[in-house]
Fold this protein.
Amino acid sequence: MVGGCVRLGSLGKRVARRLLNLQVRNRKEFINCVSNRLGLEIGGPSSVFGDEGILPLYRYVKGLDNCVYSSDTIWEGHRAAGPTFQFHPGKPKGRNIICEASDLHPVPDGAYDFIIASHSLEHTANPLKVLAECRRVTKAGGALIVILPHYRYMFDHRRPPTSLAHMIEDHEQDTDESDLTHLNEILELHDLSRDKPAGSHEQFRERCMRNIENRCLHHHVFDDHNGQELVRTAGYRVALVDFVKPFHVVILAFLDPQAGE
């Protein structure tokens, strides 16, 4: 006991998370999709996939590459392209691919067995275009594992969930990452009391205006319903959906085995 608190070991932490409903149910279904397979992460690495995360997948993969929009991000600092993606201490580094998730041009068709993305789709202006690229680079029958923030339980709670029609319109209009369509709504309704790192209203506004550089905006607002709609519209079969405290919507989906034929 340190400072009145019990120091939990790794096993104790895992048990505590289960008791608090802080891990994904049916984890074996997710693990089976990545075990000894090669995948691509969008916007990694993510703690939720680490050994102490709500869905510890990293330890099971055969290999994992990563797509990131820039070699210098607000979350991870500088990361060079090439074999520099350190996602798990027990695994060899994957390839860090510097490109937009909506334009995975360095990646050939059907290159990966699965795609994972944690809290990244909401930061993209055109999520259907991103998912279309994910389909292209995934083998037929491959898995998509997406984690989205449920708006009710975070700083987006004052905003309405984005309609599927709006996201379809973004796709049809080929909206790119310079888009600030949602800026006024965000500035008016973002709950800064739940987003302390954002600073004051003026600091937050200044950061939002530089979104093309930092990608901090939540362009779209999700719950479990429109998250599933988005994935289905992108051509995937949704197999499992779970909610994990405090705000994670976890979706497992698959490409049709005949995709691309």
